[in-house]
Write a structure and sequence with these properties.
Blueprint: E1 3-5, E2 8-12, H1 18-27, H2 29-32, H3 37-41, H4 46-61, E3 66-72, E4 78-88, E5 93-100, H5 109-123, E6 129-134, H6 139-147, E7 151-160, E8 168-176
Amino acid sequence: MRLNFGSYHIIPIHPKDGWNMCNFIVANEDRLKSYFPLTLEQNLTPDLSNIFVAKKAKKFEAKEEFLFTLKKNESSKLVGLVYVKEVDWDKKQGEFAYCIDYNFEGKGLITEAIQQLSDYAFDILGLETLQIISHKSNIGSIKVAENNNFTWIKTLKNEFTPPEGNALNMELYELYNEIE
């Protein structure tokens, strides 16, 4: 599976993505430490990244969690990650989590990736509800949700505790598959 848009493409994580993953994570360590602490700690060396991507590829195959890479077409440089996580097959629900390389922020790449992956999640995976959970201070993430017609549902009290702080309230946005 490959989703193309502009000079970029989205593909599922692949076991050979270890070095690219490590480079991406280390280059964006400051951006990832608060909201992606586990991904960060599991990718600080190439060996750790190889283990990480192998596990994520197996989870993808097992339909437990879906990690996609966002890459430039001409170089295959990894510029972003998009997870479909917390998949509940009984509720037909999943949650998006995403991050972008600091050099590519503000270009609409995650907005476009979420649009394409929402269609994929509805049409291919058969999910009916997609969620985005973000802190109100993460304006970029809120814009991604709003630009993809996610609806604000409620504030989740003490939903997430970053490694260096206190529990934070998070904003829940949802998008529903409109079956005709």
